[in-house]
Amino acid sequence: MGNVIATAAVSLDGFVADTEDAVGPLFDWYNNGPVEVYGSDPGRPFHLSRASADYINATWPNVRSCVIGRRLFDITNGWNGVPAVGEHVFVVTHEPPTDWPFPDAPFTFVNGIEEAITQAREYAGDHDISVTGGNLTGQALAAGLVDEIAYNLVPALLGTGRKFFGDYVGPQILLDNPRVVEGDRVTHLHYRVIR
């Protein structure tokens, strides 16, 4: 069975976006280097530093399914029906869209984080599942569903905004020492959750 990995680009003060859902400098590292890297969309290249490219190329290919919230789905329009990473996206929502123009895209709308992770695990098999930061991450942590945290730390302070762990309320969680990769304008901190 693969791992459930909570992941996002995060400011030094813990935010994944500002109050208007803009990421500002948090995504600059995706396009500040000479190495071209792709997720699932061959039309959406990233240009990374060698260190970030090596880190991404060691992690993204093993992700088969992703779990995201309805907010991210709406902001990105579901990446126009093409998963950013992996083959299938499970969207946690109480109200699936009725007019999305990509009805045949590999997206499944699920009510609740536990059901979404269950379906994502079944789909992924021995591959990993990515859970995108925000309230969804806090819910997955509180439910004990997260195996690893991929914290892409950007040297910026947003001051306020959407927190990586949302409004997490749950048990104290300890993590193993991180694997640390220093990129250009990002430090990749990859932790395992201690069970």
UniProtKB/TrEMBL annotation:
Lineage: superkingdom: Bacteria
Family matches, as InterPro entries: DHFR-like_dom_sf (IPR024072)
Name this protein carries in UniProt: Dihydrofolate reductase
